[in-house]
Each structure stands twice: as C-alpha cells, then as structure tokens.
Amino acid sequence: MSSGIEGKVVAITGASSGIGAETAAYLAERGARLVLGARRENRLNEVVEQITAKEGSAVGVVVDVTRRADLKLLTDTAVDRFGRLDVLVSNAGMMAVSPFDELRQDDWDAMVATHVTGLLNGIGAALPVFRRQRSGHFVNVASTAAHVVKSPQGVYAATKTAVKVLTEGLRQESGPDLRVTLVSPGFTDTEGVGRGGSPEAAAALARQRDEIAMPPSAVASAIGYAIAQPAGIDIGEIVIRSTAQA
Ligand SMILES: NC(=O)c1ccc[n+]([C@@H]2O[C@H](COP(=O)([O-])OP(=O)(O)OC[C@H]3O[C@@H](n4cnc5c(N)ncnc54)[C@H](OP(=O)(O)O)[C@@H]3O)[C@@H](O)[C@H]2O)c1
What we know:
Elements: E1 9-13, H1 18-29, E2 33-38, H2 41-53, E3 57-62, H3 68-82, E4 87-90, H4 105-133, E5 136-141, H5 154-173, E6 178-185, H6 199-212, H7 216-227, E7 237-240
Parallel strand pairs: 1-2, 1-4, 2-3, 4-5, 5-6, 6-7
Helix pairs in contact: 1-2, 1-7, 3-4, 4-5
Bound molecules: NADP nicotinamide-adenine-dinucleotide phosphate.
C-alpha cells in the first residue's frame, strides 16, 4: 500500500542538521526522493550519505536561502534529477535571540533574511514549478514563537510570525491544485538551540531545551503526516510541542 510519501520528490532547506536532517531521514525511509539544501557542505554530505547507505534517494545542493538564485538551483535540481518537485519544506532557520538593548543588529538582519526573504525565495522558485505541474505542496516551518512572544525572542518571534502570515496568504491564493502547511514546533532537541544571539539568552534556551525539548523525530513525523495526506486534502497547520512546554 502506498504511504502517501513514496516516490514524492521533496526539497528541504536547512537539511544539514536538526529537524531538516531528521525529516530527510524520515521521508527517505518511506521512499521519498530528496533534494537537500544547506550551507555546510560537509554536514549536508553526511546526511546524504546516511540516506544513500540505507538505499534511500537523496542529493545535496549547497544553498544559502537568503540568495534567490540558490533556491532556484534547489528546485531546478529536483526537476532535472527527478523530473518534478512535489514538496518544498522551508525549514532553514536560526534562533539567535537576545534582548533589544544589546543591539545585535546583524542577528536581527540574519533572522529576517533567513526566515522571511528565505521563505519568499523558496516560494518564488517553487511556485512556477507547482503551477506548471498543477500540483505541489509548501510546508513552512515556523515556531510556537509565532503564537506566543516570550522575551527576549522578539525579533525571532516576529520573523516566525511573518512565516505564519505568509503561509496563510499563500494558502488563500493556492487554489485547488496546491497544498500549503504551516508546522510550528516548540522546543526541539537540536544543535541550533542556544547557537548565536547573546550568550545569556543562548544559555537559557539551551537549558530549557535540555529540560523540556521533544526529539526532532516528532517534528519529522508531523511533517510526514501532512505530506502523506491524499491529494485534495490540505493540513493547514500543525502546532507540536512537548507536554512539558507551557
Ligand atoms: N529547535 C527548536 O527548538 C525549534 C523550535 C521551533 C522552530 N524551530 C525551527 O526549526 C528550523 C530548524 O531548526 P533546528 O532546530 O533543526 O536547528 P539546526 O539544527 O540549527 O538547523 C537549522 C538548519 O538551517 C540551516 N540554515 C540556517 N541558515 C541557513 C541559510 N541562510 N541557508 C540555508 N540553510 C540555512 C542550517 O544549515 P547550515 O548552517 O549548514 O546552512 C541547518 O541545517 C528553524 O527554522 C528553527 O527556527 C526550531
């Protein structure tokens, strides 16, 4: 029986670690063909090798989502290699949180560029492909921070709220052929939590992660659930967090 995932061509940004890498492994085990994007080539290659060692199908493309041409390369690779693109998972992100008074403006800019411009670059690259095929699925990874703002996560939460708003706007225009899903994870046990931002804020996030985070496999299976739905059925939004998270 078909899994609803088998054979689908899925591109994932931010696939070199954490939720993206775990989602790639989950989908590969169920027969998806993957095009994986991130900036760290060595880490990306490790993910691709782990998948192909288990007879899975995956190709890596060095992608910086802040660059429009890189997203075009990602979607072109899917079409050139596999003949189509069924799903784009826009997952690349960073959690460089800090209080406003620290004026970490490079971090602010990077989060806007990665989460907002990066998502738009993905939409710009995949939408023409999806329209041509008359099918396609956008899966956009936001955060519970798009639902509840907690200091000092103001800029991170704003950019993830933008992901939520863009996803809903896209869904309303998507028409009968496309699917659009927002996935908002809570604390997830990945290396990205506590990296960047102010040292105090990063340490506090890492402590919380160690106390209450869910494994990235939980988010991977939520993404898989949305992808596995029959044609014509769109899971609009999934909020997923550990029961320990308030
Ligand atoms: N972990 C959590 O608690 C949590 C909670 C809610 C939402 N999220 C969201 O989940 C997503 C994945 O995060 P994670 O927790 O799995 O952390 P992670 O392990 O640090 O993964 C982040 C991924 O994004 C990639 N990335 C960052 N900037 C990029 C760019 N400009 N271009 C291309 N790729 C880029 C990184 O790869 P390279 O560095 O190799 O480019 C990496 O593969 C993020 O959007 C994050 O905001 C995480």
